[in-house]
Amino acid sequence: MNNLFGARSENGRNNMAQRKAVGFIVVLVIIGVPLLTHAQIDFGEDHQVPSNHVHEGDMYKIASRIIIDGQVNGELQALAANSTVSGKVKGDLFYTGGQINIPGTIGDSARLLVGTLNLSGLIEGDLRALAGMVVISDKAKVNGYLAIGTNNLLLDGTINGNAWIRSGTTIISGTVQGDANIQTDSLTLRPGARIMGDLILRSRT
Q1: Under a CB-based contact definition with an 8 Å cutoff, are residues 126 and 146 in contact?
Q2: How far apart are alpha carbons 79 and 26 in whole angstroms?
Q3: Is 18 helix (H, G, I), strand (E, B) or coil?
Q4: What is the pTM of this model?
Q5: Rounded CA separation 153/151 (Å)
Q6: Model pLDDT, residue 28
């Protein structure tokens, strides 16, 4: 039987890749990413950009694990169970998956649909994410705005724009340079927390 991309399915792995591709494309439509052709998407168990390597142009990946230690000179669109960006993506990051760790740099904005987001690096643009848990460490910085929907948020880093937060539990010990619009069941402002603009606080219920 021919699969979604016109290739013959030989085993269960191909069928699983097909199902992942369908979900990936649905997410891309939801967050406004152009649809990819079969020639653009690369499938694989694991994919790594080594620290001494530069990938020229945009990258489109579906894999079990993606590791970016080097540099992507374009945007990265990816679906994976677990990923780490410790190098640099010069363009936008569009990612859906189980977990993503970003100790590196995103040169533009990031749009994420994940189970867990761990950010300890730099996002030069905006950060928009739906996640089960979000941890923004004290070393992390978002130079644009923050828009987060999550069950649990720990914000220790710096947001240089406004913040829109919808969370079950919200703990802030970092800095929001703009306004903070927070809808939460529980808010804790730890020592060192700073909101330089207006704080708008509402309950989720």
Answers
A1: yes
A2: 12
A3: helix
A4: 0.81
A5: 7
A6: 44
Whether the CB-CB separation of 97 and 114 falls below 8 Å is answered with: yes
Report the run of H or E that residue 26 belongs to, with start and end.
helix 12-30
**Sign of the C-alpha dihedral computed for residues 42, 64, 77 and 7 taken in this order:** positive
Q: Encoding tokens for residue 49? A: 């950009």
Q: Are 83 and 69 in contact (CB under 8 A)?
A: no
Cα distances from 180 to residues 57, 97, 117, 120, 160, in angstroms, run 36, 27, 20, 20, 11
> Count of CB atoms within 10 A of residue 185's CB?
12
Q: What is the pLDDT of residues 176-202, one digit of tens each?
A: 999 999 999 999 999 999 999 999 999
Q: Is the dihedral of CA 145, 104, 111, 133 positive or negative?
A: negative
